[in-house]
Amino acid sequence: MRNAVKDLGLTPPETSCEDPKCPFHGKVTVRGRILKGMVVRDRMQGNVVVEMEYIHWIPKFKRYQRRRGKISAHNPPCISAKSGDRVLIGETRPRSKTVSFVVLGKAA
User: Fold this and answer.
1) How many structural domains does the chain have?
2) Residue 2 confidence (pLDDT) above 70
3) CATH number assigned to the domain comprising residue 39
4) pTM of the predicted model as reported, rounded to 2 decimal places
């Protein structure tokens, strides 16, 4: 199975961690969607909420509408994204009831 972390050419963070759910230092494979977004909440222990903006076409009015969606993602201690950071997240197998994504790094 392909691992998207190697395919994207992401470099591992300088600090290491012992987290088994880390895509760089653990046994997590990233497959599926790769998304960019902004961290809006970092109060959960080990998780963050990432908000993504996208545009949706409304055929009746022949215009686009701006929409937002929120996704919970696991935040490894070696990355430790904070609120306001733009991050890259990747899809994994379900980690918990609401978490199926993991933070891959801080985006530029």
Assistant:
1) 1
2) no
3) 2.40.50.1000
4) 0.88
